Amino acid sequence: MTPRTFGKQARSVLYGAVVSCLSVFTAYAGPIRIVTEELPPYNMTQDGKMTGMSTEVVQAVLKEVNVQADIQSMPWARAYDLALHDPDVLIYSITRTAEREPLFKWVGTIAASRWYLYSSSSHPITLMDLDDARDWQTATVNEDVGEQYLMGNRFLIGRQLQSSNRYELNYQKLRTGHVDLWISDELNADYLARQAGDDPKETLVPSLRIPELEAAGGFSMAFSVGTSDATVQLFQQGLKAIRENGTYDAIARKWN
Fold first, then answer.
1. What is the pLDDT of residues 3-47, one digit of tens each?
2. How many helices (H) and strands (E) are present in the chain, helices listed first?
3. What is the CATH number of domain 115-214?
4. What one-character-per-residue DSSP string does 173-203 give?
5. Collapsing DSSP states into helix, strand and coil, what is residue 99?
6. Cβ contacts of 192 within 8 Å, gap of 6 or more
7. Which residue in 9, 49, 51, 168 has the most C-beta neighbors within 10 A?
8. CA distance 19 to 102
9. What is the mean pLDDT of residues 87-112?
10. Strand runs (DSSP E) across 124-251, as ranges?
């Protein structure tokens, strides 16, 4: 191969790479709508602004891909419904499950999570497996993955499940004895206990761990299926970039 031929091939490869990258950016249609819920310390409103570990990851991705969009906090059932039915909707922090897999276009994991069925230290309950929980009342959040998981295992709202729209209400229900169990992510449970002035190590008993809800690695970002593949790929690249440049690790250290 002559130097001249090599130079032409190198320029051709470089041109193809540039065109490929530009095509992702130019195909991004925008604008997008970003929705989430109050799930501290992952996503929460403080002083009128959205913050939290997952929120900071999403904001870092937005900065990386040079996209501007406001984040709206709302009850999870509403956010979930919007992401199911409207185009160009980004939802976080959402757990990736087999049932949800075809319903969204997944960007990637943004925060680790561990799930438990909790009981109160004033009324500790020993569970050997999930079937043991059928004899007790469990607090859930409407359309949250914990509720979906239990319903998928034939638990019924109004019989074994008490559904609400807010996580902090479920902690209060458990604390006051209105329910026997509460399904929650560990960081969320610990945070809400501390917000109530309690020490989670003294008030919460992890009666049963639920590894099925941890299989995908934690909470994710996902787009509605009506979103263009180019937009999804752009955000996937942005998430990959902040993982590689240290931004993600810095955010995780701050909140853990």
1. 454 444 544 444 444 434 444 444 555 699 999 999 999 999 999
2. 9, 12
3. 3.40.190.10
4. HHHHTS-SEEEEEHHHHHHHHHHTT--HHHH
5. coil
6. 40, 167, 168, 171
7. 51
8. 30
9. 96
10. 138-141, 161-164, 181-185, 204-209, 219-224
Answer yes or no: same fold for 33-111+218-255 and 115-214.
yes
Q: How far is the C-alpha of 162 from the C-alpha of 147, rounded, in Å?
A: 9
Query: Cis (ω within 30 of 0) for the bond into 41?
Result: yes
pLDDT tens for each residue of 161-190: 999 999 999 999 999 999 999 999 999 999
The count of other CB atoms within 10 Å of the CB of residue 200 is 19
pTM of this structure: 0.83
> Which amino acid is it at 58?
V
Using CB atoms within 10 Å of the CB of residue 240, give its burial: 0 to 12 exposed, 13 to 18 middle, 19+ buried: middle
User: d(Cα 205, Cα 25) in Å, to the nearest integer?
Assistant: 48
- Composition of the chain by helix, strand, coil, percent to 5: 45, 25, 30
CATH fold, domain 33-111+218-255, is D-Maltodextrin-Binding Protein; domain 2 (3.40.190)
Closest CA to 138 of 122, 166, 157: 157
Which tops the pLDDT comparison, 245 or 21? 245
